[in-house]
Amino acid sequence: MKYSITVTLKKDVLDPQGKVVENTLKSMGLNSLKSVRQGKYFEIEVEEKNEEVAEKEVTQMCEKLLANLIIEDYKINKL
Amino acid sequence: MNSSVIVFPGSNCDRDVALALEKMHFKNKMVWHKDTSLPKSDLIVIPGGFSYGDYLRSGAIAGKSLIINEIIKAANSGCLILGICNGFQILTETGLLKGTLLRNKNLKFINKDVNIKVVNNETKFTSKYNLNQILEINIAHNEGNYFTNETHMEELKKENLIAFKYCDEKGVVNDRSNPNGALENIAGIFNAKKNILGMMPHPERMIDKLISNTDGINLFSSLISK
Q1: Any idea where the domains of chain A sit in the sequence?
Q2: Interface test with A, best of B64, B94, B100 (most A CBs within 10 A)
Q3: Which H helix or E strand runs over A11?
Q4: A8, A71, A72: which to substitute to probe chain B, counting the most B Cβ within 10 Å?
Q5: Predicted local distance difference test score (pLDDT) of residue A14
Q6: Which residues in chain B show pLDDT less than 70?
Q7: What's the CA gap between B116 and B159, in Å, rounded?
Q8: In chain B, what residues touch A17 (CB-CB under 8 Å)?
Q9: A27-67: per-residue pLDDT in tens?
Q10: Average of per-residue pLDDT across A19-28
Q11: Which residues of B touch A16 (CB under 8 A)?
């Protein structure tokens, strides 16, 4: 089973990289741009066939290592 | 007193801190991160560097290494733990210290000597300093922007758990004297029991007049005379 995971900074955490990308896009004339938040993307494949168990494991991976829950949120999508 | 310096792939301040400890007459041992037992230690130091190339987040991978379980056990039984720079980042990743270190506000790696102020000198790490003493210590990091939630910030202030704050040469703590955007200019914090100190500045680089100053010595001499 394959999953994609995105990890992004929480709303109230300053994202200086996202801000620089945002300012650059604006300076390129892309004026409709409202805001940019930068994050991380993972693709994860697990051997587990049972969907419920697999999702539990992927959630654990996110909470124990992939995201730092103090500053980041994560989203899991089944591919 | 016995000390252990933990070495990860990518640690690069391990030798410097070992020298500082030996200068203060600690009996020091270097401990590889794959080891599953610690030598008898009164003090464990997690040194600066770029463990695992800062992959994922600074300190995230080192925070899951085998030796960390032993460090957590030792910390819970009262052993003194000092994390410097990447060591501070690793301590937050293990949960031994709360909060985290974000990328510097200006997105730049900062390597310079800055002033910090001793905010609490009634601990085993800082007893040889005076309260509000201004030190000049080197910082060299890309992720030193300390961040934590409001509840923990209240606890830090109420329980006097802030060790050092960035300031200017006159001791003024404000945005101008804040090199990396850290909340409340925080440069170092203790855990609730004050047996763990995490700090971004490098005291081990300030122990010899020949290459810098000696403002870092009192940290190590506080520890040896605890």
Answers
A1: 2-78
A2: B100
A3: none
A4: A71
A5: 85
A6: 226
A7: 20
A8: 103, 107
A9: 999 989 999 999 999 999 999 999 999 999 999 999 999 99
A10: 94
A11: 103-107
* Planar angle of CA B74, B77, B80, nearest 5 degrees: 60
Give the minimum alpha-carbon distance from B76 to chain A in angstroms, rounded to a whole number.
20
Domains (ranges, CATH) in chain B? 2-224 (3.40.50.880)
pLDDT tens for each residue of B31-73: 999 999 999 999 999 999 999 999 999 999 999 999 999 999 9
β-pairing verdict for B2-7 and B43-46: parallel
- For residue A65, give the chain B residue with the closest CA: B60
CATH number, domain A2-78: 3.30.1280.10
How would you classify the pairing of strands B2-7 and B134-141? Answer: unpaired
B167 is catalytic: no
pLDDT at B146: 98
ipTM greater than 0.85: no
Q: What type of residue is B24?
A: M
pLDDT given for residue A26 in this prediction: 94
